[in-house]
Amino acid sequence: MKNNNEVKANTKSANPFNPTSTGGGLHSNVKVTIGADAQAEYQNLPRQIQLNLNYVFDLGGTATMGDINAFSETASGNQFWGRGDSSYEQTPSKVIAHYSPKVFGDKEWSKKLGKLEIFKIVK
User: 6 - beta bridge partners?
Assistant: First the structure.
């Protein structure tokens, strides 16, 4: 047994343990598209959901959670992932995971808004 921390790459096979999680949010490979109710109710949604919609739109209308997270890291101006000079602590995937019953239309946002499909999972 080696008594140092030297690590050599295993080149004999593909690594099945490459990280694919987005840190507590939706899996980075989950692909979403803009839902049927997103445009009509855009102004009534939390700012973080509005930003996620903006990112998906700018990424071509369909994107993986990994792509959305990566986009948020370099977004600036009115697309900045935060308020003022402070970045949000949660990643976009964590925000969508938190709101998932609502953004995917399974649960009401409120009695006034009802159920809305803001995002749709692409299979």
Answer: none
Helix (H, G, I), strand (E, B) or coil at 27: coil
In tens, the pLDDT along 14-43 reads 555 544 444 556 788 889 999 999 999 999
Is 78 within a domain? yes
Q: Give which of 51, 53, 52, 55 is closest to 39, Cα–Cα.
A: 53
How many other CB atoms sit within 10 Å of the CB of residue 33?
14
pTM of the prediction?
0.78
Q: Determine, yes or no, domain membership for 6.
A: no
Alpha-carbon 86 to chain mean position: 19
Total domains in the fold of the chain = 1
Distance of CA 90 to the CA centre of its chain: 10
Place of tokens 């019953």: 101
Q: Which domain holds residue 80?
A: 31-122
